[in-house]
Design a protein that fits this description.
With 828 residues, the chain is an alpha/beta fold. The chain is built from 27 helices and 21 strands. The strands form three sheets. An eight-stranded mixed beta sheet has the order 8-21-20-19-9-16-18-17, sandwiched between helices. Strands 1, 2, 3, 4, 5, 6 and 7 form a seven-stranded antiparallel beta sheet that branches. A six-stranded antiparallel beta sheet has the order 10-15-14-13-12-11. The protein is elongated. The two termini are 49 Å apart. It comes from Streptomyces brevispora. Keywords: Membrane, Translocase, Transmembrane, Transmembrane helix.
């Protein structure tokens, strides 16, 4: 399994492909009094360092001692069906539908069939999204390395059994609870569980908790709790489930529906009393017109379309190998105005090449090559920088130096090291890491290093030291021996991606553990605006407000520690910014967790993938613009269609109130409003919700929708009711109510079409065709006799229909004025 962790100068390196198996020293023996390899109550294997045998694994599986927590990336099929079927509004509409089936013709019950069709569409689309999520989750699933019968192999997390010996390396997440069996300078970060930011040095016998992750060193632990008994199992399962909550869009729609419910209940009661008690009409027709007044108040399709838009977004991104672990992340990234990038793995590829080794202080160059080869052999999990050294300076056959001590890289230290017994019997100890950390500020070598950094090259310092590597102040007396110059490989798609964010007015901040000048040079090569504004994070202010100012005024930051990354994100958020953080190394985990949106590379460490909302399985930073575009499509289009739905709600409520106040029959039957809703809202909303939309996401969803819906609905209701009152005075005799309804329907349709025409802007050929097709469909209903009868729509005479058209024209002009006035007087 390929993982990433921090390299000597702050990069995110690749784990070696060499097996780590049993070549790591076992720090305790199996026969010791405390046997952490095997849980209490079970007999210890003959050789604890070799892990369980096949027979022991089979025995534990038979007893059910397996890590069988069903972590899902999406809702189950039964949950999808329940969520789409059993809603508050479906219940209301279902009851009204049943009533209509008994008291009115089938055409007055069409709204019920529409709800069934819409709910079916929602279930199918979400099921497609579930399949995409589940398949991508399998692809992106981290597989821990487990040692059995002395052989290390990757297995699924769900296949771990009680007592398994699980190997750990930098960036690995602890997947079940256990006790440390082997430790090689093993440091584990438990901050996601305990809130304690400092890594904890683990020794054999120490407990480890699921949900923590390795920041330095390596080792192995024995599983003592698996399945739902593990400390973080329930939390991890819940966090990884499919969710549609915790987003402004979803919470805004919930708020709107709550207000609609409050308005609908008293209005519906008043309408029922008005039609059944006050007016002495045919009972069945009174029931039908009452239901016709209640049904359009419910914006049931709004929730459905939002779910469908999100689900289709997941499917579209899934085709681009982008795993969206939480659906609101699509929306969240569209709202982002600052993207914080880690250089390695994002702007540059993981691999590097050694271009030069410059000897210092007269050290013999062939001897330096032997030292570098020995350092490479000392780490069973080399990072990208060390792997480049291994490739350039392999160990000569049969000439291994004995390793007496090893110090793994830590992103806090910025260096690693090892001590050796050399061929001639001498001993030596070395550090390899960031020159500006290991050298004093006045050292003349820093000038030479700065010149190399300005060329975008990475420079590591090899220094000889005396004393134990983990001793205090060991770096203070380091004697510089060589500069190792590494060339980084730029991602071919990074330039275009940075240009996209600049074009979209999204600020980019490069935050790296590398030297700030070197990072700035790389960013400048990729055309990042402001790349010349570099800052060494060691000089950043600690005051949050001053830190926020520094973050806003600079673009490139180097020598950043993991805790500083977290503080940087918090500082930007304190200024009202929506922050996305990308990364693939263990040093990025805390910042990814705190950012509004965390984006991890698929080849990144397991810990980063666990906390990120979005995982780029193809490891391509260039996929991010697709996620941003998908989020903007969802938000922009849902805002459009929400205005359509809520305009209908507003005019339905106002019409009902006017009917109650004027003590007249409700002008519409359910079939009329079903027709209007289908042509002016249902069909257009579906196409508009899925259309391309590059408009930048804006906050205050509820205010943006209601500021247009209220005046539009009011104008539509007043115009329709005026037409209805005029028609009541114009038509007399049998069939007058049908003629009055037809005239009112014509006005309401034309006004609603104008609302649709406004919302469809800016016009494209397909939007014009969409609006025109809806108008043509209504015209067909008016002129085809059997459709006239089916929908009870027949315009009588010429005077009243043209009056209805004239009122609609005046109302449309009022709509145009109202929209412009609202945009000018009440900007969001």
């Amino acid at each position: 399994m390929t993982q990433r962790a921090h390299g000597p100068s702050g990069d995110e390196p690749n784990r070696s492909s060499r097996p780590s198996g049993t070549d790591r020293p076992v720090m305790i023996d199996a026969g010791s009094e405390l046997d952490p390899v095997h849980p209490v109550g079970l007999p210890a294997p003959a050789d604890a360092g070799r892990g369980l045998t096949a027979a022991e694994v089979a025995e534990r599986i038979a007893r059910g001692e397996v890590n069988d927590v069903p972590v899902r990336s999406s809702r189950s099929m039964s949950e999808i069906v329940r969520a789409n079927v059993f809603t508050r509004f479906n219940l209301i509409i279902g009851l009204l539908w049943l009533i209509m089936l008994f008291v009115a013709p089938i055409q007055d019950s069409l709204f019920g069939f529409v709800i069934i069709a819409n709910t079916g569409i929602g279930i199918v689309q979400e099921w497609r999204a579930k399949k995409t999520l589940d398949s991508l989750a399998v692809i992106g699933e981290a597989k821990p390395t487990v040692r059995r019968d002395g052989v290390a192999a990757e297995i699924s997390t769900s296949e771990i059994v009680l007592g398994d010996l699980v190997e750990l390396g930098p960036g690995d997440k602890v997947v079940v609870d256990g006790r440390v069996a082997e430790a090689d300078s093993l440091e584990i970060d438990e901050s996601l569980l305990t809130g304690e930011a400092d890594p904890v040095l683990k020794r054999p016998g120490d407990p480890v908790m699921s949900g923590s992750f390795v920041v330095a060193g390596g080792g192995a632990f024995a599983a003592t709790k698996v399945g739902r008994e593990a400390y973080a199992a329930q939390v991890a399962e819940e966090a990884s489930r499919f969710t549609l909550v915790q987003s402004e869009l979803r919470s805004g729609i919930s708020t709107i529906l709550k207000y609609v419910t409050w308005m609908m209940i008293p209005t519906a009661i008043g309408l029922v009393l008005s039609q059944l008690v006050v007016k002495d009409n045919n009972f069945r027709e009174s029931i039908a017109r009452t239901v016709g007044g209640i049904v359009p108040m419910i914006p049931e399709g709004l929730v459905l379309l939002t779910s469908v838009a999100f689900a289709i977004g997941v499917v579209r991104l899934g085709r681009k190998q982008c795993l969206v672990q939480e659906l609101p992340a699509i929306e969240g990234l569209a709202r982002v105005d600052i993207v914080c990038l880690d250089k390695t793995g994002t702007l540059t590829e993981g691999g590097m090449d050694v271009t030069e080794v410059r000897a210092l202080n007269g050290v013999d160059e062939p001897y330096l090559h032997r030292v570098l080869a020995a350092l490479g052999a000392s780490d069973t999990r080399p990072n990208a920088s060390l792997q480049a050294i291994i490739d350039a300076y392999p160990v000569p056959d049969g000439k291994d130096w004995g390793i007496t001590q090893a110090l793994p890289f830590s992103s806090a230290r910025k260096y690693s090291g090892a001590a050796f017994d050399e061929d001639d019997g001498r001993t030596s100890a070395w550090l390899l890491g960031a020159p500006d950390v290991l050298l004093p500020e006045e050292d003349p070598a820093l000038t030479e290093i700065d010149q190399l950094n300005q060329q975008g090259l990475r420079v590591l310092l090899l220094a000889r030291v005396e004393g134990p590597l983990d001793g205090p102040g060991i770096a203070a007396g380091a004697l510089p021996s060589a500069l190792i110059v590494l060339e980084q490989r730029l991602r071919p798609d990074a330039r275009e991606t940075l240009a996209y964010f600049a074009d979209q007015r999204v600020a980019t901040k490069v935050i790296s553990g590398d030297n700030a000048v070197s990072v700035g040079a790389v960013a400048a090569k990729l055309g990042l605006a402001g790349a010349e504004h570099t800052m060494d994070a060691r000089r950043l202010p600690t005051d949050p407000d001053e830190l926020a100012t520094a973050m806003e005024n600079n673009t490139v930051f180097g020598r950043v520690t993991p805790q500083q990354k977290r503080e940087m994100v918090a500082a930007l958020q304190s200024r009202g910014h929506t922050v996305a953080m990308t990364g693939d190394g263990v040093n990025d985990v805390l910042a990814l967790k705190d950012a509004d949106i965390g984006v991890s590379m698929g080849s990144g460490s397991e810990a980063t993938r666990a906390v990120a909302q979005i995982v780029l399985l193809n490891n391509s930073f260039a996929t991010l613009p697709s996620v941003v575009a998908e989020g903007r499509r969802v938000i922009g289009n849902i805002t459009r269609v929400a205005t359509l739905f809520l305009t209908k709600t507003v005019y339905s409520v106002l019409l009902a109130i006017l009917v109650v106040c004027f003590q007249v029959e409700y002008p519409f039957l359910p079939r009329h409003l079903t027709l209007l809703s289908t042509l002016t809202i249902g069909i257009p909303a579906f196409f508009l919700a899925l259309a391309p939309n590059k408009e930048r996401a804006h906050p205050h969803f509820v205010r943006r929708v209601m500021r247009y819906s209220i005046p539009s609905g009011t104008i539509a209701a007043v115009a329709t009711f005026v037409t209805y009152l005029l028609a009541r005075h114009h038509y007399v005799g049998p069939g007058s109510l049908d003629a009055e309804t037809s005239a009112a329907t014509l006005t309401l349709f034309l006004v609603s079409m104008w609302v649709l025409a406004i919302i469809a802007r800016p016009y494209t050929w397909w939007r014009i065709c969409l609006v025109a097709a809806m108008g043509l469909a209504f015209l067909v209903v008016l002129v085809v006799p059997w459709l006239q009868n089916f929908f009870a729509l027949k315009l009588v005479g010429a005077q009243m229909p043209w009056t209805a058209v004239g009122i609609a024209v005046i109302a449309s002009a009022a709509l145009e004025y109202a929209w412009r006035l609202v945009s000018r007087r009440f900007p969001v």
